[in-house]
Structures are given as structure tokens and as C-alpha cells.
């Protein structure tokens, strides 16, 4: 259902932090013109933590309308309250999304049984295709392979975004559930190798800055063309690293602003990219041939 380079879309803001819907329209068209295979709206990279409920759904609705069915749209609808996640997921489905991305509940550190019941409850309440999202570095909770295997039996759980940073974990997932759900890398730096070994795509921060190259790398990897995929990925290595030189999405928003697509707005407690980090990101953009 979903594959290839799926951008974890930034949410453009004006300098005062207000949402910038004109820039959002430009970003959507930028990605479609450059081959992005799907758009993920209002995930972690989209600053979901600082958008209020109405803003969250408004961004999703506007992305769906602007895309107009040309590529899939996936909405980030996770929360650390199961009831809230159900409400967000239902509203996103009503807005017309093709799927929802649901992060592991953060801060409250549920057990593996709690994770299973959380995701089962959402899937049973809202009949939209759903992608699990494991990112223990942000949530302080790591969804284990056995839990994913249990959840893979639920019909509308169609995928997993795995961002544990481990190729060994990714290998285990391919062996355990790769025939039942689609697996997507949440780590740009190991996405190429993950796709060459059974993953179906990447939900990517790098794609915000280099969408064409990410699309072409993913296509080559999914076609089994290791040489081409690795050659493209080599030029992207600097971005994979420097877009996390400070907390995501700080560097990504700075880089996209350098491309002239958005203003520099970002919401507290995040702050604009430090002056001392800017040259490293700029050099990575040169290496990736985007400036």
C-alpha cells in the first residue's frame, strides 16, 4: 500500500510561530514534482507536540486537499492517551487520509501488553490503515518484535516504522513479520541497507531537503540495484547525519528555509538552528547537490 520515499513533512511556520499555509502548499507541490512517494503530515518532524488539536487536523486536511489523490497521505495521529489517539485517528480518516502513523505512547512507558492493547483498541475503533511507529530514543519505550508479531494479525495494521537504529532489529523484523506487514525505516542512515534487505521504504527526514535523490535511492534499493542505491546514498550521508546535529526538526527546517521554500519559524521549546551548526548542514546540502 505504501512504499519508497515517504517524507516526514515539516510544518512550515512564520517567524512568529503561526502556521504558514501558503508555504505548506509550496511544500506539497515541491514533493510531488520531485517524486516523493507519500507524504506524512504532522508526525514528530511536523512538530505535532506543539500543534494544538485544531491545528493538527487543519494541517492534515489541507495536505489531503492539496495532494488531491496524486500520492498517498499519511497522518501522524499517535498519542500517549489511547482515547486521544482514537479521536485523532478518526478525525484524520474523516479528513480523507490514506493511512495513519501511530507512535508508541511516550513518557508513560507502557508494558508490552499495554502496547498491544493500545494499538488493538485504535485499530478496532477506526477502520483506516494504520502504521505502528517504534522510536525508543524519543518515547523511552521500545516495542519488541514479539509485540509487533501479535499486532500484525490485526487486519488494518498494515505496517511498522522502525526507528531503533539497529540493522539487527530490522533483520529480525523482516524474518518475523515481513511477510505480513510492510516495514519502513525511520532511520535515514540505515534506510538503504534496510530496503536492500526486505524493508519497503523509509519515512524520511532527509527527504524534506533532497526529495528527488531519496526517491531515486529508494527506487534503486527496492529494485535490488545495490550499486546505484549505495552510490546515491553516499551523496546523502552528510544530510542523514547533520539533519540530527540538533533535535529534529530544527536542522531540517533551517535547510528547507535555505532552499527558499519556507520562513524560519519554529515553536518553543525548539529554537532555530545554532549558528555554529549551520555550515555543517550547508556543506551536507552541497554534497547532496541540492544547493
Features:
globular, TIM Barrel, eight-stranded parallel β-barrel, alpha/beta, 8 strands, 291 residues
CATH superfamily placement: Aldolase class I
- Assign a percent range to the helix content: 40-55%
Oligomeric status of the shown chains?
Answer: single chain
Strand content: 5-15%
Rg (C-alpha, Å): 18 Å
CATH class descriptor name: Alpha Beta
Structural class: alpha/beta
Morphology call: globular
Q: What is the averaged pLDDT score?
A: 98
Reported for the largest beta sheet, the result is: 8 strands, parallel, barrel
Task: Tell me the CATH architecture.
Answer: Alpha-Beta Barrel
Catalogue the unreliable spans.
Answer: none
CATH topology: TIM Barrel
How many distinct domains? 1
Number of helices: 12
Give the N-terminus to C-terminus distance in angstroms. 33 Å
Site (L-lysine inhibitor binding): 49, 80, 84, 106
GO cellular component, one term: cytosol
GO molecular function: 4-hydroxy-tetrahydrodipicolinate synthase activity
Site (Part of a proton relay during catalysis): 44, 107
